[in-house]
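F.,

This is the one I mentioned.
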């Protein structure tokens, strides 16, 4: 198996990524690279479901617990941290196994940042003052191709297309078509797996893990944290546990809120990874052992 090409192991939260990654690393002589936005942080391993000390000791792991909770992070910073780690693993003849569920972080790592400009609040405010008919007419004038394939009754779509045209000085359709070509070419050289579980099975795993997380010390982790960045403050369970500590909700309500937020997040992850056509689906039935042979076949 080519050790120079990383294996990307993706899937929703609680799907079993860590255990499969360890099994793959053991079989292939690989090393695991974290691709979970919150497992980059240290001191909150229970809250973020980071690998346990025993798991970390099984095979080499990278980029776990490398940031303090008061540091901010985004997809670009993650890419800048991960690329040198992957290159160093490859230089030693080992297989990088990039495991995680943060879709945008993985997208930046595999394909790089999109050439499309980011949003401009000031410009969007000017567009809010215009009628949807005016927006449609403006887009048809600037970029007829994009206008023809855009729902001209959807204000959000119109606003974004106009924003791209105006901020870049180029046609939105040209930028998007070039990016689609680049993305398709890059995807052809990637190998990756997307773990899929039955909905009821995944929800049951989320339910159990939420209780275990609180029982094992996640409340103490959060209460002992002096400060948290805007990035880490978005971690599921962080605000809910703070409400529990402050007496605003009881333990049962805290558990149910975390479960509900985690299920919603898992659904968004599934939607994201299904759109990444280069990822090969791996069906993991309930109670089945780690599907190592199936995973190896998919990435060979």
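My design for it:
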């Amino acid at each position: 198996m080519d050790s120079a090409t990383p294996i990307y192991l993706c899937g929703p939260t609680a799907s079993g990524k860590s255990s499969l990654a360890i099994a793959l690393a053991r079989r292939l002589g690989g090393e695991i690279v974290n691709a979970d936005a919150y497992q980059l942080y240290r001191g909150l391993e229970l809250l973020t479901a980071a690998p346990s000390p025993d798991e970390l000791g099984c095979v080499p792991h990278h980029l776990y617990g490398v940031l303090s909770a008061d540091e901010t992070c985004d997809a670009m910073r993650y890419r800048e941290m991960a690329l040198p780690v992957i290159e160093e693993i490859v230089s030693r003849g080992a297989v990088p196994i990039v495991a995680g569920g943060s879709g945008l972080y993985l997208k930046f790592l595999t394909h790089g940042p999109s050439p499309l400009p980011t949003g401009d609040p000031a410009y969007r405010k000017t567009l809010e003052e215009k009628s949807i008919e005016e927006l449609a007419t403006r887009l048809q004038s600037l970029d007829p191709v994009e206008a023809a394939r855009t729902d001209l009754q959807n204000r959000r779509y119109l606003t974004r297309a106009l924003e791209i045209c105006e901020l870049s000085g180029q046609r939105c359709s040209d930028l998007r078509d070039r990016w689609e070509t680049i993305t398709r070419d890059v995807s052809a050289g990637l190998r990756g797996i997307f773990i899929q579980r039955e909905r009821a099975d995944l929800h049951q795993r989320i339910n159990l893990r939420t209780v275990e997380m609180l029982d094992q010390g996640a409340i103490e982790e959060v209460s002992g944290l002096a400060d948290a960045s805007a990035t880490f403050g978005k971690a599921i369970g962080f605000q809910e546990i703070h409400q529990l500590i402050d007496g605003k909700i009881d333990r049962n309500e805290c558990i149910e809120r975390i479960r509900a937020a985690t299920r919603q997040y898992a659904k968004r992850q599934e939607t994201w990874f299904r759109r990444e056509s280069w990822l090969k689906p791996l069906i993991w039935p309930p109670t089945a052992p780690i599907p190592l042979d199936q995973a190896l076949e998919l990435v060979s």
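The chain has two domains: 7-113+185-299, 121-177.

Talk soon.
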